[in-house]
Amino acid sequence: MSNVRDFGATGDGTADDTQAIQHALADGDGEVVFPRGNYRVTRTLHVPLQKFGRTSLSGSGGVAKLIMDGPGACLAIEATHTGTADPASFREQQWQQERMPTVDGIEIEGRHKEADGILLRGVVQPTLTRVLIRRVRTALKVTGRARNVIVNGCHFYENSGVGIHLAQLNLHQVIIADSHISYCRLGGIRIEDSEIRNLQITGNDIEYNNYRAHKRQFPDAAGEPTAEIYIDVSTGSVREGTIASNTIQATYSPGGANIRFLGSGETGHEKAGMWTITGNLIGSQSNNIHLTRAYGVNITGNYIYSGHHRNLLVEDSRNIVVGSNSFGHNADYGNKALATGLRFVNCRNCNLTGVLIQDAPLGQHTVSGAVALQRDALVEIIDGQSFNISGCQILDGTPVGLRLENCSNSLVSGCSILDQRSERKMRRAIECRGGTGNLISNNRLSGRKADLPADRPGFTVSGNVFDS
After folding, report:
1. Is residue 33 part of a domain?
2. pTM exceeds cut of 0.85
């Protein structure tokens, strides 16, 4: 065990302890311990594992703090992995020198406007536990070529950049679990320009990651789009992942989202996809889930509420499955409701099955200062191909329950599209505008049979029951 005090660190928050800590990292026994104290550093603490060997840093259960009083990462851990996760691709030196660096029970706080938290580059099995990083730009950045990353039980709070930034990264097997990621201006978890497979985001509280907590420092940043989980595949690809059992919510920000996928290319679908979004509580952003050019995303078992623009917005995507979710409101706010809505544009091969969606009683936003709602229906399918909408309850839609515009080869079956309000506001249950090869059958609908396009080419209508 190498106690940084034995190498000359004071931990008084004033003296520059950079050289002493770097000395402990380079010449200690690899188990570097920080007793209780505030350790001021003015330049990056470098840990080249191929040179230093196996390394761990411990803040003695959370009582030690590193104060980064200079630009750049407070701690940079670097290694030399160039292979895959296959055991045959590892060199023996990596197991002897570079595997599983750990950081546990320590706080990092920024004191310089260009300070960052931890940088991991080319590292295998890095493990962060019980780490608090606050008031830096980016709390944790993973880059280069990495495998088997674990972030567990950490707090990334009040940072002017990103909470966890995966950028210029080739990575397989990463688990982000049981952590609190909040009040980071450019997103909670943000992925850019990377090739990533097998990403699990599980059991976290990810919230309020937008400009609102940083207005004083960044007064002109309101229009910069962000998200709690932001997956940008303008370049690279991100596939094979889960977002499960998290609380993901925010205060409204213009163009913001709780979960955002941005695919790429003319087709682009294969580059952002093969994901499940399951068992989460997701609410209170402009778009709660926003998918663009995504492929193979399953959204099920979530409660999704109070989207300012849409609870779910899907564009230019295919093979999207939305099942057994509830789209609604937060009852804690009483009559201060945000009208819900789902919108699909230019999508194909999509299923909406077993969904419950209920609009606000007044069919409009009743929250002071909310952006005016503009929509044609509670559920909008525009230029859709091969949609299966079955077993859904679409309740209290305003002005229309379900709108199909220029859709083809789609089915609406076994749904209840009803206005349950004492004063009805839904003009019609289903509105159809153009399309070919569509079937509307065996639904329970508010309104009149005459509202459906029974004699219009492109629609077959049969077996529906009307309440008036």
Report:
1. yes
2. yes
Distances (CA, A) of 51 to 23, 24, 26, 157, 334: 13, 14, 8, 32, 61
Q: What percent of the chain has pLDDT over 90?
A: 75
DSSP for 2-53, written as a single string: EEGGGGT---EEEEE-HHHHHHHHHHS-SEEE--SEEEEESS-EEEEHHHH-
Determine, yes or no, domain membership for 457.
no
Q: Which helix (H) or strand (E) holds 322?
A: strand 318-323
Contacting residues for 266 by C-beta, under 8 A, at least 6 apart: none
Query: Considering the chain, what percentage of its residues have pLDDT values greater than 70?
Result: 98
Count of structural domains within the chain = 1
- Owning domain of residue 116: 1-211
Answer with the residue of higher pLDDT: 92 or 314. Answer: 314
Flag whether 222 is in a domain: no
∠ CA 399-404-405, rounded to 5°: 105
Is the CA virtual torsion 425, 426, 427, 433 positive or negative? Answer: positive
Residues 309, 315, 320, 322, Cα dihedral to 10° = 10
User: 24-45 pLDDT, tens per residue?
Assistant: 999 999 999 999 999 999 999 9
Per-residue pLDDT tens digits for 204-214: 999 999 988 88
Instruction: Give a yes or no: residue 396 inside a domain.
Output: no
* Structural tokens at position 446: 């508010």
Q: What is the CATH number of the domain that holds 183?
A: 2.160.20
| Interatomic CA distance for residues 294 and 271, integer angstroms | 8
Strand partners of residue 281: 247, 303
- Give residue-wise pLDDT tens across range 139-169: 999 999 999 999 999 999 999 999 999 999 9
